[in-house]
Amino acid sequence: MRQHAQLIESVAKASPPPGGLVFWWLGQHSFIVKAGGLVFYIDPYLSPHQARTVPPLLDPQEVTNADFVLCTHDHLDHIDPGAIPGIAQASPEAIFLAPRTARQRMLNLGVDEKHLVSLDAEDRYEDERVTITAIKAKHEFFDRDPELGYPYLGYVVETGGVAFYHAGDTIWYDGLTTTLKRWSLDVMFLPINGRDADRFRRNILGNFTFQEAVDVAGEVGPRYAIPTHYEMFAANSTDPQPFVDYLQAKYPHIRTWVGEHGEPVFIPPRDE
Hints:
Blueprint: H1 4-13, E1 21-27, E2 30-35, E3 38-42, E4 68-70, H2 84-90, E5 95-99, H3 103-108, E6 116-119, E7 124-126, E8 131-136, E9 153-159, E10 162-166, H4 176-180, E11 187-191, H5 197-201, H6 210-220, E12 224-228, H7 241-250, E13 255-256, E14 265-267
């Protein structure tokens, strides 16, 4: 498991070609993705916690290489108050994206207003390097604010001839797959820890079951479907193997990956 300087060095050395990407799983729903010459941190959860089963792989001040930081919603393991201030200082030119409902939260955590992009569902950030589209997520409920919009988002990122989707925390809802079919996705990062009454009573909001995650991937048709959000906390975990088995049985043309935290995973261009 690569950590700290070794992990940062791995990111620096990775050079995916056009149409390809490299990702590193940091645990829970946290990823580093490198594509199109850009480094994306998605839901970087770097704070220590006694209940973590996977230690933080980076200290926030080590994140000097971020071009974009994508935050999906204002829960502690997604907008991490122990990580965001340090990342903002260590990568002062990074652009932070978060739901409009979390705008003040991000400002309070030290993100410079001129580097903060606040989005609602279907909003888009675009420059000459990248297009990022916000997709609404349903974390048990939509919980839409009538003025600010949806508090839970996923993101579709298009850069360097590759497109990937990070679902954030969500369950299935009508229209999700129709929306995602607008893109020819290379990779989908999908939470699989599920939901149940006991967790809901303890205020642990749910996500896709492994079957739902597989079927969403099957309908959308990415090249790779990556299960996430299943191992960090014992009270909210699951085994990824049923996801792998169901995907291979039902949609064998879609590839997947389950592996070690902090290790580079190379996704080649479509023609390789």
